[in-house]
User: What shape does this take?
Amino acid sequence: MEVDFLLIGQGLAGTALSFRLLEAGKKVLVIDQPSANQSSRVAAGLYNPITGKKMVKSWLADSIFPEIEPFYSQLETALNSKFLYPLKIYRPFLNIEEQNEWMGKSGEPGFMPYFDQVFTKQHHIEVVNPFGGIMLKNSGYVDLNKLLDEYSVFLKNKGALIEEEFEEEYLTIKKEKIGYKDITASAVIYCNGLGAMKSRFFQHLPFTPVKGEILDLTQDFYPDEIINRGVFRITLPNGLHRVGSTYTRHDMDQGPTASAKNEILEKLDKLINVPVREIKNHRYGIRPATKDRKPFLGKHHEYRSVSIFNGFGAKGVSLVPYFSKMMIEMLIQGEEIEKDVNINRWSKT
Assistant: This one.
């Protein structure tokens, strides 16, 4: 079998990049092992322009956020499915000083695309928000499990997906082609999250795996928007609420932990005045984060037919649409990857 591009992994990164390659008229083959840990499948899928305890604008927000909804909408059309949920996010203020600060920022041109409304008084009686809060727009979430499942079927129908473990010892690099078992391709691209840490080509890249845990639970409060302060709380179409997430570099091998569950519930209790009725699911994933919290894009410094598109961490839903476009420009048009995300920044010396 001969293809233009062989992609390793069909998490969010491999899904987005293979779709863009197909849209560009390229022949692709994706190798994926569904049973392997996929951080994409346990992520909440949130995209949020204002993040962190200090409520700052997300990195490269003005470039990244205009790409998000159009890209997932395009995927919805191609797959004839629904998994994009544009929703506003309500973030309560912690004190009157924060309220005053954000009332001032709400008129700044750099923030206006992301601000819907500032509330100076309690907006929800069910939320701990005595100082009001800010309603954000250009935000929401993606149902990643549905997206990945639907796209897997899409690839299978094209004969473009092999569900098996990728065994790098069978990968050969020739002058202008790469070979893998009975497959020949012009290039191979590693989109396999933390699996790339084991690759002989990318062992030098400083991945810093991060564990995150989330809960699905029942609670009698169904706002139209996402509530986010300390934890996010998303009301799902099935009536459950998804709450999370934790962030730790420890307990990687322990699965879901009681300490993470308690941490999430304690933070939720400080945010929502309504008791939790029942915890339905408790899941965890290991995110492919990086040392400088920026993704890895580009070609191997020696083997130019070997590339990587990886390391998106907890913000993959936001970052992947923009950076998959940049990756396509490199792969097809020969454009250079921006230095902040180019793997050359970690080249061996």
Notes: The longest strand covers residues 276-287.
